[in-house]
Design a protein that fits this description.
Elements: H1 2-17, H2 22-25, E1 27-40, E2 43-53, E3 58-68, E4 77-85, H3 92-101, E5 116-130, E6 136-137, E7 144-151, E8 156-163, E9 168-173, H4 179-186
Antiparallel strand pairs: 1-2, 1-9, 2-3, 3-4, 4-5, 5-6, 5-7, 7-8, 8-9
Length: 190
C-alpha cells in the first residue's frame, strides 16, 4: 500500500501534465528504431536504438524494456530494462541537454563507464494519446508508452516515454531533486 501511495502522484503528474516538448516541460527527445521485439516470460521485450542528433554531435544508445501487462485493478506494473552503450557515440551534447531539462543544478559526469546500465521501471500506461497540454490520456487509445525509470537503486527517477509508431522517445523530469543523480547515472552508459 505504501508504494501505491508513493506512485500515485507520479502517475497523476504523468497523465495530467506529462512532457510534450523540451521547452514546455523539461524533456529531451530522440528518435528510436526497433532492433528487436520478443517474448520473455510474461513480458514483451523491446530493444530500440535511440539517436539524439545536434549540429555537432550524434549520440546513440540502446533502450531495452520488458513491457508487462497491467494486471487486475492495478494502475501500473513494475518491470526491468537497461540502457546500453553504442561504440562511437558522442554524448556530450545530449548530457548537457539532459542536465538542463532535468534541472541538474550541479551536474557531474561519471568517470567510470559501463556497457549496460540496468534499471527497474514502472509502466504508467500503454496505448496512450498525447494531449495538447503535454499529458497523456487513454481515451482515445494511442501509441504512447509512459514509464518511470528508477536509477541508482531508486535514488534517481526520470520519465521515459516512447511512441513506437512515430519512432520517438523522450526523457523528462520527474522531480528536480533527481536531476544530478539521473545525469550522473546516465553518463555511465551514454
Amino acid at each position: 500500500m505504501r508504494i501505491f501511495r508513493l506512485l500515485i502522484p507520479a502517475l497523476l503528474a504523468t497523465l495530467c501534465s506529462g512532457p510534450h516538448a523540451q521547452e514546455e516541460s523539461g524533456g529531451v527527445s530522440f528518435r528510436i528504431s526497433e532492433v528487436s521485439n520478443s517474448t520473455v516470460g510474461d513480458a514483451r521485450e523491446y530493444v530500440w536504438l535511440a539517436t539524439h542528433e545536434t549540429k555537432s554531435a550524434k549520440a546513440q544508445f540502446l533502450i531495452s524494456i520488458q513491457l508487462k501487462q497491467v494486471q487486475g485493478g492495478s494502475l501500473f506494473a513494475f518491470s526491468k530494462g537497461y540502457f546500453a552503450r553504442v561504440p562511437g557515440s558522442q554524448s556530450s551534447e545530449l548530457l548537457k541537454q539532459l542536465a538542463v531539462a532535468l534541472a541538474a543544478n550541479k551536474p557531474r559526469l561519471s568517470e567510470s563507464k559501463v556497457q549496460k546500465l540496468p534499471f527497474d521501471f514502472a509502466i504508467l500506461g500503454t496505448g496512450l494519446t498525447r494531449e495538447s497540454g503535454g499529458g497523456f490520456s487513454s481515451k482515445p487509445a494511442g501509441p504512447w508508452i509512459a514509464t518511470k525509470v528508477f536509477l541508482a537503486k531508486g535514488e534517481g527517477e526520470v520519465f521515459l516515454n516512447i511512441d513506437p509508431r512515430a519512432s520517438i522517445g523522450e526523457f523528462s523530469i520527474k522531480d528536480e531533486d533527481y536531476g544530478n543523480i539521473v545525469v550522473f547515472e546516465l553518463s555511465k552508459v551514454l
